[in-house]
Amino acid sequence: MAELSANNLTVSVGPKRLLEDVTIAFAPAKLAAIIGENGAGKSTLLRVLSGYQKLDAGQALLDGRDISAMRPVERARSIGWLPQALPSALPVTVRDAVALGRFAHGGTPHRLGEADTRAVDDALLACDLAEMADRSTTSLSGGELARMHLARALAASTPVMLVDEPLAALDPRHRLNTMEMLADLAVRQGRTIVVVLHDVGLAARFAHRIILMRQGKVMADGTPREVVTPAIIADGFGVELGVDDSVGWPQPVFLAPINSAAAESQTG
Question: All domains of the chain, ordered by start, with CATH?
Answer without folding.
Answer: 4-228 (3.40.50.300), 239-268 (no CATH)
